[in-house]
Write a structure and sequence with these properties.
Elements lengths: L3 H27 L8 E3 L4 E3 L4 E2 L9 E2 L4 E2 L9 E2 L4 E2 L9 E2 L4 E2 L10 E2 L14
């Protein structure tokens, strides 16, 4: 024979299970996935960042485009690389930097401006023109 206290405890236990269990069971099915560096969520799956874009903890798990003067080659990049001296990139979201043609130069790394004309003729591409 059940006592009134035992019956009440049984009802409370069932009520708690009915209230607490469903959210736990269905939480992972509706939650957006947590993606690693170099990826972002499309709502249901993690996808790699495309060329010219990167993601890491600083971007909040969202693929961000590389700024002018830098690039990200390949997919799944976690950072951007500055253009080397002798190369430039004037557009954001690019997968490579452009080389200066013969007779032109860029002296600094990470340049986001076009190459400058040498003061004298040079046949070497990417030459710093002897400055």
């Amino acid at each position: 024979m059940r006592t009134p206290t035992g019956h009440l405890l049984g009802i409370v236990a069932v009520a708690l299970i009915c209230v607490l269990l469903p959210p736990l069971l269905f939480q992972s099915a509706s939650a957006e996935p947590t993606c690693g560096d170099g990826q972002e969520s499309n709502g249901t799956h993690c996808v790699s960042c495309v060329e010219g874009y990167y993601s890491n903890s600083a971007t909040g798990g969202v693929c961000a485009n590389c700024s002018a003067g830098s690039y990200a080659s390949g997919v799944g990049s976690v950072s951007c690389t500055p253009c080397q001296a002798g190369k430039f990139q004037t557009q954001s979201g690019q997968g490579s930097c452009e080389s200066c043609p013969a007779g032109y130069f860029v002296r600094i790394d990470g340049s986001d401006v076009d190459c400058t004309t040498c003061a004298f003729s040079s046949d070497d591409a990417n030459a710093d023109c002897g400055y």
